[in-house]
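DM between two lab members

TW: hey, do you still have the Anoctamin entry open?
JB: yeah, one sec
JB: this one, 765 aa:
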Amino acid sequence: MRGHRRQPSIDLLELMGVVKENGNDHSSIPPVQTPLSYDYVLVAKTNDHQDRKQIEYIEELKKKKLKVTKIIDDDLVFYGIQAPKEIFERYRYLLKVSDACNWSSDQNIDKIVHFILNHTPIRSGESLRNLMKMKVFEAKFCLHEKKKQRELKENWARWTACLQGQPITAVRNYFGEKVALYYLWLGWYTFLLIPPALIGVIVFLYGLAFFNSSPLIKEVCEADTVMCPLCDKRCKVWQLSDTCTYAKVSLLFDNNGTVLFAMFMAVWATLFLEFWKRHRASYVCEWKVSDWCEEEEELILEIVNNANCEPKEYKHSYLRSTLVLICVTVMILVIIGLTHALVVFRVIAAVLLAEGSWEFLSTHSNSGAMMLGAVLHYLIITIMTRINRIVAMKLCEIEETRSFAATEKSFTVKMFTFQFFTYFSSLFYVAFFLGRINGHPGSYVRISGKWRLEECHPSGCLTDLFIQMAIIMVLKQTISNVFEFTGPWFCRWFKKRRTKKLQRKCAHCYLKDDSEVNHGAELCENCKLRDWLSNYRLNDVDSFSLFHEFLEMVIQFSFTTIFVAAFPLAPLLALINNIIEIRLDAIKMVTLERRLVPKKTNDIGVWIDVLEAIGVLAVIANGLVIGVSSDFIPRLVYRYRYGPCANGTEADIDCMSGYINNTLSVANLDDLNLRNEFSASQMITTSGLNVTSCRYKDYRSNEDYNLTPQFWLILAHVVVICKFIAAWFVPNAPLQVKNDRLFDKLNRLKEELSSFQARLRSDHP
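TW: and the structure you got?
JB:
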């Protein structure tokens, strides 16, 4: 028989420094947790009114042969829960005879106890979740294992390990495959950000190299062109040369290198996902979970909890689906409405800044309004994140999904959709609509007939998109990370202040906890209480704790890829953030939070589909940014059609000379339509010169040929979205077929369990 050989993909990851396995055997089964301080703990306040339900629930657990130890500490009551060996044996046997989980051997009992606790109701029908809402119990958690916790802290969960690989197998053995795959994905994503980060810096330096020598910059800085007023009443005409600095900044992000970088990022996003699939496949093969099915495992846990259980059938209601679809649509419209509110805010802010007494703000009113709008956008994102979570969870309840795996998938899709619109609706407006729907002198588009819409700078609109992205991304990464770390740390410190100081562990128990012991060995009561209290003081976690980490990173991936043409430094910011994020999440998970219930899986779930969709959208969005928002296409047209090099005879003149002037149209006050547009005082320059005409950015004399292709492209994507909605609306298999297979599988597992128990009884009469 051929010996076990490690997958080449894993060796490659270790060579790159993404992981650090130190020769660990990836196929090894994590050892059974020593039962020194029990599998699970329930915590309650001493309350006479709730004591009856506490006792009733504990009695239900005892009926299932769970061992329960009660320890009272001041106003807290701790219940240590420990499952007998028989429950674990039943679970392992059913895994062995199942269809999808039979290759894997699981040694972690925490999730079995977790499932039993959550699916044990009292006589009145209330589950543990209901009892916790009623404050019958205050907390529930599985316990950290001190020895493994200390090893992970030394090898992984510390700031000095930022540039080291991750011990993914050790993470898997302690937190389960689901958490390990998250860190493996995050490590691979961070490593692959190095090339785009370097190229993004090169693109930025390329723009910086031509900072002062570009003919476009010279044309703006040396122009004597008079531009039309940016607002009504108090705004006056202004000199194009006043915006010399803004034009230089625009060139840093809107140059020929940006186009090549956007093309590179489209290929990069695809390679990132394809290579991730290979690395994932290598690890799940080593862990023997390639065919693992979460829904089948949930069915096995139901039988372990209750041998006479009836499965929760698949259900589908067109009425419920229609209601969910309507609610999702309304929620998206509300989020888009907030984008419109941001537009109104920026328009009003620009007017107020332009009419203010501060000369600097008056001169740069549009840029100031854009920055204020970006800060307000971040505040809206912070508030809407909480609202989106509540709405997404309520919609999942309306759907009545059959299992937790189905609920998690449904919640992920809805939550990401809401968050995506919250983050990117405003950016899509800035990228594709800003400066294109504002009208022109004599026919300006106004909000409520009063405030003119925003205009782009003569050097282009891309800088506005860059400002918006930079502020949101920097604020999100810095503020989020600060709160993500200091929040749990402060909560732990506050709980320490509220509870009494822990006693030192006795020498006898200290030796037990630090060595391998026989089954049945326990800590003394004081040391049990010490262990339970130290875990109680940590921050709470739930089934969706890992979801929030994934959501944060996938939103960042969207920022890094979708509008990278406007912000080449986005991959660099993402790389720096992720190096910190990996250790921040590790420290938080190992030392500041209660232990997550270990869960098996063989992929990152629906997130891979979300990432695929983002990759496709990134290609489309960057193409539109280059074609619509950037001046790349107009510059090419000018160079080869209208510029001095169009006929190939002007060798001594730069081919882009006169480009800025070519992009500006003329507004003459002699036109009857313009006489009421600007007042006489607005047409006086800062030097006191009275002008009769001004310039504005537009091609009013040319036929508008860009709108129709863009319109049909957007329409095509609307049709694609409708296709996916229709596919979700109609189940891909009749529910009777699904339910028949479900009952067949359940009955087979019950029969296998009965025969297994009969053999055990015959072997031990």
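TW: got it. The two ends are 38 Å apart (CA to CA). The CA atoms of residues 260 and 617 lie 18 Å apart.
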